Structure formats: structure tokens, C-alpha cells
């Protein structure tokens, strides 16, 4: 059976074109709206680093004033040369909307990570509650770091007062670096030498991350793949991290940055001393 031949008038073609055009515009509008519609995601990226042996911010911005990160009274304090940098990650604010276009842009970037909103900000918490939680974790971290450092050095906490000040930074992940900073300022590497030769760092720029408890146990904190980039950006050549996070640390590891995994404060101090002397075993991922 042959098909029935037919033809379309110019007016019919015109009507069809109009319909197709309208449909195309509607689809584009829908895709455009989807592209800008908010999604339940947060974008994370490398944050600030701060030398626990120095002042922060360094250098101070206009209208700001630098404050010594670690201040110690009741015991002689060394003049250090190197750096022991705590590292952070930053994230879009909890009230910010992330669109599909934002997510597509950030997804392949090596210095950004797209994660579920709830992985960063617990459901039901507003900005003030999130900040309060982070600040409490930071306070607990500072207390644990002080206890771990003084216990390592066999110093009486009732005679040595340690004050840690780091504005606008929250969470527990700076514990290990705070602890090492306290030890370096009080005793260095234990050799009694002045300057870099007596530092835990040997004058080098060392960065790291890891939660610590009063017993000196180091535990994982997350965000390591972004923290290594913050460390490298700010000149670090060594990065201390919890051993359990080696896999994340090796992801996109910047050139020239050496990973040193640890599980305890003792291991961290021993690794820094081995790096300085060139003898002994330095852990690796």
C-alpha cells in the first residue's frame, strides 16, 4: 500500500515553526531554571593556614591586629625559626545556594570538592549553631593539645599556662599542630640548641592536620586532599597527617610536599627528629 501524498501550506509550516520554537524556549527555560535551582550540596576548597609558632593573621589585613597563636607563661620559651602550620578547609556558607551550574564547575576542579550539604552542616542547624559547635570543638582541641604537650614534656600544668588564640577558626583538626607548637616553643627537639638546629622543624616549613586527645592519640579529621593544597600554597614541604587518611592525602598531592603519617604524638615528634637528623625511619604513606 502506498502512502497518501500530502502537502503543507505556508501557513501550516509557519504554525509548526511557532510551536517548535515555543517548545524549544520552554525546554531551554526548564534547563536554565534547573541550572540555577539550589541543590543540597556544599563546595569545599583549601582554607587558611596558620603558623602555630607565630602570629595570626600574618600579615595582618587592613584594620586587623595580629595575635600570637600560642602564648606561654610560667616557663622559659624558645625563639623558633621554622613553621608548624595548622591547615583548614573552607566551605560555602550553610545559607548559600549551590546550583547545578556551580556543581558542574567545581566537580572536576582539583582544588574544590562538591559534597552533600549534611556532610558539612548538620541538618536543622543554623549558621550560629554551626559556628558554636565548631568553636566548642576548637576549645576542646586546644585543651587536649595543651594536656598532651605538657604530659609529653613531663611539665606540671598548674605551673605552665598555655593560651591558644586563633580567631575565626573552628573544629578539632588543629590539635596535632597545636601540640607540636607548644612542645617546640618549650623544648624544641630536646637538644638544647638555639635557632633552627634546636627546632623540631630544623627551620623548615611543616604543615599538618589531625585531632589529638590528652593521651597523644592522633585521629582522622577529613578534608586532607584540600588541606595539602593549602599547605603547599603557603610554602610547606612536609605534611603530617593521621595514617588512616593516607589515601586522601595522596589524592592530587602537590609536587614537593612529603606526606608523613602518624598515629601518636610520639611518632610525630620522632618523625620530625628523623627528618632533621637524616637518620632513623620517617613514616610514609
From TrEMBL:
Pfam families, alphabetized: Lon_C
GO BP terms:
proteolysis
Q: Does the keyword Hydrolase apply?
A: yes
GO MF terms listed in the record are:
peptidase activity
Protein name per Swiss-Prot or TrEMBL: S16 family serine protease
Which controlled-vocabulary keywords does the entry list? Hydrolase, Protease
Q: Does the keyword Hydrolase apply?
A: yes
Q: What is its EC number?
A: 3.4.21.-
Region forming the signal peptide = none
Amino acid at each position: 500500500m502506498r502512502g497518501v501524498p500530502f502537502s503543507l501550506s505556508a501557513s501550516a509550516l509557519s504554525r509548526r515553526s511557532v510551536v517548535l520554537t515555543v517548545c524549544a524556549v520552554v525546554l531551554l527555560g526548564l534547563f536554565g531554571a534547573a541550572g540555577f535551582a539550589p541543590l543540597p550540596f556544599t563546595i569545599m576548597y583549601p582554607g587558611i593556614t596558620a603558623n602555630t609558632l607565630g602570629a595570626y593573621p600574618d600579615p595582618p589585613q587592613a584594620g586587623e591586629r595580629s595575635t600570637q597563636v600560642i602564648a606561654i607563661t610560667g616557663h622559659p620559651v624558645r625563639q623558633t625559626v621554622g613553621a608548624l602550620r595548622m591547615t583548614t578547609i573552607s566551605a560555602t556558607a550553610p545559607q548559600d545556594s549551590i546550583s547545578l551550574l556551580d556543581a558542574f564547575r567545581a566537580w572536576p576542579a582539583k582544588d574544590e570538592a562538591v559534597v552533600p550539604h549534611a556532610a558539612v552542616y548538620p541538618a536543622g542547624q543554623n549558621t550560629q549553631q554551626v559556628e558554636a559547635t565548631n568553636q566548642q570543638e576548637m576549645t576542646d582541641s586546644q585543651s587536649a593539645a595543651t594536656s598532651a604537650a605538657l604530659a609529653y614534656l613531663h611539665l606540671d600544668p598548674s605551673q605552665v599556662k598555655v593560651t591558644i588564640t586563633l580567631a575565626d577558626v573552628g573544629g578539632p583538626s588543629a590539635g596535632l599542630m597545636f601540640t607540636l607548637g607548644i612542645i617546640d616553643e618549650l623544648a624544641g627537639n630536646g637538644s638544647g640548641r638555639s635557632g633552627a638546629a634546636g627546632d623540631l622543624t630544623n627551620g623548615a616549613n611543616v604543615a599538618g592536620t589531625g585531632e589529638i586527645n590528652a593521651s597523644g592519640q592522633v585521629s582522622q579529621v577529613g578534608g586532607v586532599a584540600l588541606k595539602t593544597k593549602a599547605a603547599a600554597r603557603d610554602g610547606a614541604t612536609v605534611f603530617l597527617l593521621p595514617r588512616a587518611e593516607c589515601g586522601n592525602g595522596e589524592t592530587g598531592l602537590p609536587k614537593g610536599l612529603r606526606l608523613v603519617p602518624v598515629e601518636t604524638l610520639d611518632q610525630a615528634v620522632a618523625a620530625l627528629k628523623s627528618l632533621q637528623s637524616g637518620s632513623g625511619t620517617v613514616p610514609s604513606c
